[in-house]
Write a structure and sequence with these properties.
Immunoglobulin-like, 38% helix, five-stranded parallel sheet, five-stranded antiparallel sheet, 15 strands, 448 residues
Length: 448
């Protein structure tokens, strides 16, 4: 009783203590609500999933870590690499991340992944706009590094420092969304470690063959690039960073490509490794008519091929072990991810060790329903030993046939629209290697 009275007296006589306690309680309430609103704000576009989920990984459990913009996480998939090789890697990436953020992103990664190789995915982005800043800063925990990033941006960038408060406190721009919250918004993780799963990535196919530009010409870099890259490389020198720079194969303008040539020369002159894949799409196995969802991003099929190529090159260059033991947490994450993508990929496509990206896709000629069955026909593929036939059922591609012929009849078709596709394969000394296929398939109406 006397103890309680003493506490009460102290409470009454120390208004500062009451203020501090009030602020602590307020922060304790604000942070969880802010997380809910931020997650809801991003749950349809994957723009920040990689940053948000990176902080959930165990210390020193990832190698390598990829840093960059949406090009980073649309091209490279940690879960695809894990599914085939058991290696645990990750992306610290957000849409629109530019050069100005790289050294701060490196510092964030080093807080938990002290010895990991860092792979910086370089694009022509330098200064980040309003939206891109939020994609990164909204999910970066408060720290001296975050404060330095905000300070550095508003010192160097074009925005007014008075606009910076919402980067410290994102709730300031989200307060009007309270009334829109539903029960689903309180589930802050879909269990896929931030894997890319938006509609464009899974379903869009864009032919970028007419948008590719290559040149040996060197043009002067913009002043922003010179300043920011010099600052980044000085930082890497000072901290003895283990860094590799990566340029993905995508569409670049003539100006971008020639300026990047100069940038690659500069990075090399500073003693850093560059994996320049801008002209390597064919070597990787990417089909520029099918494996992109827009001019600058691979779709899920291109991502599978790119991930396999890159992780093998990086592992060889830096003596990183592949073929690790399985991890229950990562197995669960991949299984969760498969549930999201199974309507857009084939099961045999996911084992990257058994792919032959150079085996052509069978051209689907016809799908005709007659007398209780659907007959699918396709053109013969050179060097193919056989073909697997799939039908889409309950939003999942189900294997229905295996044949050496160029046609197949399916009597198990259901009433309504049936979608079919066919993937080629060859026998490589007892190992079956699967080629390419028409991602959207061919449809036929079944009337029973």
């Amino acid at each position: 009783m006397i103890k309680n009275q003493m506490i009460t007296e102290v409470w009454k006589k120390t208004p500062k203590l009451r203020v501090i306690c009030f602020l602590l309680i307020l922060v304790g309430l604000v942070i969880p609500v802010q997380k809910i609103l931020l997650y809801r704000d991003r749950k349809t576009d994957n723009s920040s999933y990689q940053v948000m989920n990176f902080y959930k990984e165990e210390e020193d459990s990832l190698n390598p870590v990829f840093i960059g913009s949406s090009c980073c996480f649309s091209f490279y998939s940690p879960l695809f690499a894990y599914n085939t090789y058991g290696i645990t890697t990750n992306n610290y990436a957000s849409s629109g991340m530019g050069m100005i953020a790289y050294k701060y992103a490196i510092e964030e990664v080093r807080k938990t992944q002290k010895d990991a190789l860092i792979v910086l995915t370089i694009t022509p982005l330098d200064i980040m706009n309003y939206t891109a800043l939020h994609y990164l800063l909204d999910y970066m925990p408060m720290s001296k590094n975050k404060l330095n990033f905000i300070k550095g941006y508003f010192t160097y960038g074009e925005e007014n420092i008075l606009n910076s408060l919402e980067y410290f406190f994102p709730l300031m721009r989200l307060h009007e969304r309270w009334s829109d919250l539903t029960a689903d918004d309180f589930v802050l993780d879909n269990g896929t470690k931030g894997a890319t799963a938006h509609q464009y990535y899974l379903t869009y196919v864009t032919d970028i063959s007419d948008d590719l530009f290559f040149s040996e010409e060197r043009r002067e870099m913009p002043e922003n690039w010179v300043y920011l890259m010099t600052d980044l490389l000085d930082y890497c020198d000072e901290h003895n960073e283990k860094i590799m720079f990566l340029l993905p194969p995508r569409s670049y303008s003539e100006e971008e490509f020639t300026q990047l040539n100069t940038l690659v020369d500069y990075i090399n002159s500073r003693g850093y490794d560059v994996l320049d894949l801008r002209e390597k799409a064919e070597e990787i196995g990417l089909d520029v008519t099918h494996d992109f969802y827009d001019k600058r991003h691979t779709n899920v099929h291109g991502s599978l091929k790119y991930t396999d190529y890159v992780i093998n090159v990086v592992a060889e260059r830096y003596n990183i072990q592949l073929d690790h033991e399985r991890n229950e947490e990562w197995d669960t994450a991949f299984n969760n991810y498969y549930e999201l993508i199974k309507g857009d990929v084939l099961d045999v496509e996911l084992n990257m060790k058994q792919r032959d990206c150079f085996l052509e896709r069978p051209e689907l000629v016809s799908a005709v329903y007659d007398d209780g069955s659907v007959t699918i026909k396709w053109n013969e593929v050179e060097n193919a030993d056989g073909y697997l036939v799939y039908r889409k059922e309950n939003n999942e591609w189900i294997r229905v046939g295996d044949t050496e012929s160029t046609e197949y009849s399916d009597s198990e078709c259901a009433k309504g629209t049936n979608l079919y596709t066919v993937i080629s394969y060859r026998n490589d000394n007892g190992v079956i290697r699967y080629g390419n296929y028409e991602y959207k398939g061919i449809g036929v109406e079944v009337k029973r």
